[in-house]
């Protein structure tokens, strides 16, 4: 009567026979044998179960699957033989007429199998193999929905084959990599995978940007909607842009992560009223004022999506799940009079007290994330981002141990997903594995008295990492092992100060003897990122660009001249910080409005009964209905339109937070007016100027600057 058997994650080397006699009465339908030590000798014993529908034998020691044995499993519908050493899939798979899923990634398959001849086939995963070509029939199977060919470096597809495969709903193939001209190894590389659940709905999404904002930052994320598709898709499309905007406002890790989640909660709109989703974001950045400095990993999560870092072979959790078992969360929810059902859910909806969406449960359920930052060291080998389905099936220790010796990030993510499914996960799964290669020359060990920690075991000793500057219009392309089906474009906001900072010292190091007994040389040991600067010499800092001249454009030596407030010089140009505001601020007292950060968002408060508060300033403190800013907040109407028009002519604000002088127009780009149209154009320009003057005069008559009304009519 046995129909279902899961013997995964053991040390099995053999299987028992189905029966002692020649006649078999087995009705076994599902057999899971993943992560054992089974060899080719076990395959013939499978023929004693002719009614098998699902067979998982991933991550064993199979080197071949005999064709005669595959032919006898005619009722097979799903097979997973990933993580073995198979060089081919038997052609007798054609006898399995009901086959709809073939998963054979992380093998040594060289010949494309004849799975495209199966009429019921829906999903084929042949990633991380050694395929060189693909043989396709004239017409693809009508039910084919997914084909994964990533991680095959030798695979070359012609134009006709690509056109045919692009008709598949989900077709994944490696994008051509631009490569690094310096030939230096990358500091990080990633791979990700996604798998739908039993209901064939993909309720998870992944975000991966190896070059985020500039080529020394990265952003990764995993989003889980539990049973809805809308929220993970919105988070995947929007969250990176929000984070890029918040990075321009503050450099504090906890602040910009919390603000990102709060703004995302507002941007979910109607989709976030009744639906919700878990999210985890990991941001790798470096100090923009120290281009060769340490890297910082910041993780923020809500719900049950989590991150774990492998440091020296041991798991280091970077996330936290806020559920009813947390005493502080339980106390907070009871204060808001929420209903806690028997299964530990808020109003019977969700067991996570901090999650995106579910705004109808506010304030019991809030989007405030758990944020943790850590400095990356050479001991850090990789980190894993996973959805709820992954961590429900695997512990963090098991996940780290499973992929620690897998050299490829894509193969590591695939392995995690396969193990979770074989261990009984029926939900959608998403996993992102980011492998790190932090060298000693990009790690500050000043606090360790200059003694760097030992390098991790799986990565070889590498040379100094040198990342070339990327042009402003170039998008980062994923590597061949990244596992990206399509290029995820992110907003490029290269910091002006970090990429164009110059040096006024010579390129050659000072020829001064380093003597520890000398009074100019302190006894403190320093790392190679922050060497000791001598009192009688100028130590040059690492920079991305080098300028030959030792003087700035204003003709003053930047070492000898006292810096002027609001003026920045980098050896190639002068940048001036400008503040354009209403001139009435000199006459009237400015109202300081306290801004409070809370779990629910940003609250602007003003005390009406405070003595000395100007009556005319009430509108600035209370009237929040008006013009909408770019970040979604609302700004009050301004009456000084003429000053705003003047401000629009000012130079655009750079992403680094400074104003730069506008570039001179190129003569080739100037508009040339034909002689026969010159008079007509002059007449049009004259009329346009007269109209502008009339509008300004009308505005000045309508809203005189010397009188402000006590209240205003707003659009609402």
TrEMBL record:
Gene3D superfamilies registered for this protein in UniProt: PPM-type phosphatase domain, Ribonuclease Inhibitor
SUPFAM superfamilies: Outer arm dynein light chain 1, PP2C-like
Pfam families membership: LRR_8, PP2C
Region spans: Disordered: 475-521, 660-716
Record-annotated PPM-type phosphatase domain positions: 189-436
Compositional bias per record (Low complexity), positions renumbered to this chain: 476-500, 690-702
Name of the featured protein: PHLP1 phosphatase
Organism: Thryothorus ludovicianus (Carolina wren)
């Amino acid at each position: 009567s046995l129909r279902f058997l899961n013997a995964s994650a053991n040390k099995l080397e053999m299987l028992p026979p189905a029966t002692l006699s020649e006649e078999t009465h087995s009705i076994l339908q599902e057999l899971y044998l993943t992560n054992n030590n089974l060899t080719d000798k076990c395959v013939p014993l499978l023929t004693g179960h002719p009614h098998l529908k699902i067979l998982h034998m991933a991550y064993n020691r199979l080197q071949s699957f005999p064709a005669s044995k595959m032919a006898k499993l005619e009722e097979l519908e799903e097979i997973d033989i990933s993580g073995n050493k198979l060089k081919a899939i038997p052609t007798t798979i054609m006898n399995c007429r009901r086959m709809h899923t073939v998963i054979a990634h992380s093998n040594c398959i060289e010949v494309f199998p004849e799975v495209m001849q199966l009429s019921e086939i829906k999903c084929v995963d042949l990633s991380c193999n050694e395929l060189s070509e693909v043989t396709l029939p004239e017409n693809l199977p009508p039910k084919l929905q997914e084909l994964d060919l990533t991680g095959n470096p030798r695979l070359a597809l012609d134009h006709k084959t690509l056109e045919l495969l692009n008709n598949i709903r989900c077709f994944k193939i490696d994008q051509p990599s631009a490569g690094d001209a310096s030939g230096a190894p990358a500091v990080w590389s990633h791979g990700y995978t996604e798998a739908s659940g039993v209901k064939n709905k993909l309720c998870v999404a992944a975000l991966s940007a190896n070059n985020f904002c500039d080529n020394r930052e990265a952003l990764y994320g995993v989003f889980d909607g539990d049973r809805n598709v809308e929220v993970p898709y919105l988070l995947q499309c929007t969250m990176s842009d929000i984070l890029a905007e918040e990075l321009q406002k503050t450099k504090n890790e906890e602040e910009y992560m919390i603000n990102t989640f709060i703004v995302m909660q507002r941007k979910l709109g109607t989709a976030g009223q009744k639906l919700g989703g878990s999210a985890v974001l990991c941001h790798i950045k470096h100090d923009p004022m120290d281009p060769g400095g340490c890297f910082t990993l910041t993780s923020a999560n809500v719900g049950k999506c989590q991150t774990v870092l492998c440091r020296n072979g041991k798991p280091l959790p970077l996330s936290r799940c806020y559920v009813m078992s947390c005493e502080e969360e339980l106390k907070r929810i009871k204060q808001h009079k929420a209903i806690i059902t028997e299964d530990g859910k808020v109003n019977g909806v969700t067991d996570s007290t901090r999650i995106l969406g579910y705004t109808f449960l506010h304030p019991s359920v809030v989007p405030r994330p758990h944020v943790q930052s850590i400095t990356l060291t050479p001991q850090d080998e990789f980190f894993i981002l996973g959805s709820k389905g992954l961590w429900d099936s695997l512990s963090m220790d098991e996940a780290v141990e499973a992929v620690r010796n897998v050299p490829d990030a894509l193969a590591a993510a695939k392995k995690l997903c396969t193990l979770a499914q074989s261990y009984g996960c029926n939900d959608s799964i998403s996993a992102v594995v980011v492998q790190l290669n932090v060298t000693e020359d990009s790690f500050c060990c000043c606090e360790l008295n200059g003694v760097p920690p030992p390098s991790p075991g799986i990565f070889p000793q590498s040379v100094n990492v040198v990342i070339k500057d990327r042009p402003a219009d170039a998008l980062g392309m994923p590597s061949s092992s990244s596992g990206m089906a399509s290029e995820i474009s992110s907003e490029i906001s290269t910091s002006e100060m970090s990429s164009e900072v110059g040096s006024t010292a010579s390129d050659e190091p000072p020829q001064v003897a380093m003597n520890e007994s000398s009074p100019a040389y302190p006894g403190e040991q320093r790392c190679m990122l922050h060497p000791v600067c001598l009192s009688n010499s100028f130590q040059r800092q690492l920079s991305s660009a080098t300028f030959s001249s030792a003087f700035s454009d204003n003709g003053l030596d930047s070492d000898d001249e006292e810096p002027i407030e609001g003026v920045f010089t980098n050896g190639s140009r002068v940048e001036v910080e400008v503040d354009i505001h209403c001139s009435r601020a000199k006459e009237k007292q400015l109202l300081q409005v306290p801004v409070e950060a809370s779990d629910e968002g940003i609250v602007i408060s003003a005390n009406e009964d405070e003595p000395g508060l100007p009556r005319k300033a009430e509108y600035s403190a209370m009237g929040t209905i008006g013009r909408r800013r770019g970040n979604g907040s609302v700004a009050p109407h301004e009456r000084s339109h003429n000053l705003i028009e003047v401000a629009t002519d000012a130079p655009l604000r750079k992403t680094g937070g400074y104003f730069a002088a506008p570039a001179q127009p190129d003569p080739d780009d100037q508009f040339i007016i034909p002689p026969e149209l010159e008079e007509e154009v002059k007449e049009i320009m004259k009329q346009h100027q007269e109209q502008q003057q009339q509008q300004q005069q009308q505005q000045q008559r309508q809203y005189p600057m010397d009188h402000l009304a006590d209240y205003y009519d707003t659009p609402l």
